[in-house]
Amino acid sequence: MNPLCYNSKRMNLDDCGTGAGGFKEGNTCAKRSGEIGTRDISEKQSSLISNLEKKLREPREKEQLYAISGQGNLILSQEGSKNKIVLQQEHVDMMKKDGETILTHNHPMSTSLSYADIVLASNANLKEVRAVAQKKTYLASRPSNGWPDPKEIIQKFTSANQEIFKILQPRVIEDTKNKDEFEKFKIAKNYSILHSEILASAVANILKIPYKSEEHK
Questions:
Q1: Contact, 213 vs 138, CB < 8 A?
Q2: Which residues contact 199 (CB under 8 A, 6 or more apart)?
Q3: Residue 86: is it exposed, middle or buried by C-beta count within 10 angstroms (0-12/13-18/19+)?
Q4: Running DSSP on this structure, what letter comes out for residue 36?
Q5: Digit-coded pLDDT (tens) for 61-76
Q6: Which residues face 87 on adjacent strands?
Q7: 115-123 vs 89-98: helix axis angle to the nearest 10?
Q8: β-strands 10-14, 84-88 pairing
Q9: What does the pLDDT look like over 135-172, one tens digit per residue?
């Protein structure tokens, strides 16, 4: 898989099926009344995000993306395929110019934030990037000293992914042994979600990116 497909014309936002959970409490964002997990979120942003994410939690086969400006206005709505959304460079520039954009989108496979999500957050200087899964919403906020360089993000995801794969692969093989195809699919999907949660959390911890997950009410 191309990690970014990012050039002067377009960028791919890929759901790579690998993410991570179990993040240390000290790196989560403070949550005040009226906020949705992010720091210094406006009431208008909060209200619009709540309404849009209700739609994203509905069963759907394709990814759908929404970008909300710092003023609380919907500035981008884009549908993609099952595992990616293609953004034009002008979209990235628009969010970067705004400087306070929050981007939310769904992950049909219910995985956490992917490396491409975090790379996009860095390239577009997002205030926050969010991924809506079946039972949780995952979010990463811009660090106080800014997002890490995209190359560093990709490198950390790659190395952490290799280590996590070494640990989880034998468990998948053992747990799917002598199971029918339907059971194998369910087990593999659950491990994919777990893998994604561990990976995203581990990388966020390494790069000091505020990251958390929220259970859907």
A1: yes
A2: 18, 19, 20, 112, 157, 160, 161, 164
A3: middle
A4: S
A5: 999 999 999 999 999 9
A6: 11
A7: 60
A8: antiparallel
A9: 999 999 999 999 999 999 999 999 999 999 999 999 99
